[in-house]
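TL;DR need structure tokens for one chain.
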Amino acid sequence: MNRPLNVCRRLLWIVLAMTASYSHAQDWPRLLGENFDGVAPASDTRFDWTTQPTLAWSLDVGDGYGLGCVSAGKYYQMDATSGGRGIFERVRCLDLGSGEIQWEQTQAIDYRDLYGYESGPRGTPAIKDGKIVTFGVSGQLNCRQLDDGELVWNVDTNASYGVVQNFFGVGSSPLIVGDSVIVMIGGSPNDDARIAPGRLDRVSPNGSALVAFSLEDGRELWRCGNDLASYSSPRAMSVDGTTIVLALARKNLLAIDPRDGQLLWQYKHHAEILESVNAIVPVVSGNRVFISECYEVGSVLLEVSLTGAEVVWSDPPGNRRLQAMRVHWSTPILIDGFLYGCSGRNAPDSDFRCIDFATGVVKWSDDRRARSSITQAADVLVLLEERGEMQIIRPSPERLEVIANWDWSDPNSGTPPINYPCWAAPIIVGDKLLVRGDDKVLCLKLAPEAS
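>> reply
TL;DR here they are.
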């Protein structure tokens, strides 16, 4: 591209971003939103949650399971396409209001899933300071210009850190803290490359559970943690005024100082079953941290400090009937001291439930026996079941209160149908509701509440 023209485009983009009426407080810049809690940014408009939203636009998508992120009125979507020349990871920028594609960038990747799942990205991009960072299924970590998608830097983390392929490839999303990009890598010594696929019980860590890179140029800043990668994503929290990073890796919850990569402490939380995974992003309230898995040990609530973690309550290992919550891949949401989320590994061994955050007491569970993910918007929960049915729920520890039900997989719903698997939690920004199925993203316009 002509360099002066490129510079002009970037200057114009900056001016438009600064002068637009769109509020940056309405961004969804990373997985689970600005505060890692799955709560939609506040809107000036109150919505009628009993009225079915209307279609604003739809987008055909390729392989992958993530929904994307939103910044300054633009929606950024990541997927994979395939053809005669191989598999390509793709990032597209769309106008959130119209669905018009602003730019598209692709990168060839080499990936084959051990269990026959899709070859597209599992995670969510992260946005900061005019850059978008993506972490694909094959371990390609890319930083691009937000205005045109031009590549700034790239790190092939699998090759650089000796990563032995996880069951389903890379599933973690990047975290940007200050000027650092922090990702879960979980590399191994070179000799481990000879281990048979899927035998993670024989794979050794090499101290690269988490690695930080410069947002500016991609150089390594630090590495830490003697653990393999999980499908969880790192998040920040404040402990006594100090920012730390939490990462639920394959076997341990790690607490790290993001300034220098010092490992502050770790807490083991892992089923001893070979084909088990950690995927929840830790839920934080004050100095308390909730983590969970669905295979064996269930959940635990920790009181954490800069030097360690103490158990507040924990589930009895191996006793599913007595475990408070068994989270697989959907991070639950905390509201007024109660945690709402999906518990269980697979249908019919799944339900949506509410537990007391402080005690782990189950308040109620539903009887749908389906897996789901959720997002909070104002005073409601927006639940998406993995086959495309959506429920609007009024959160209450007393009972499950469903105030609306829409089936986006139904060809007669008035929108293009979405198909299983619908595994990404919905995104809500302003009056737009984004929902993803296997091969399509719907952008729905919420109905305003009658004055």
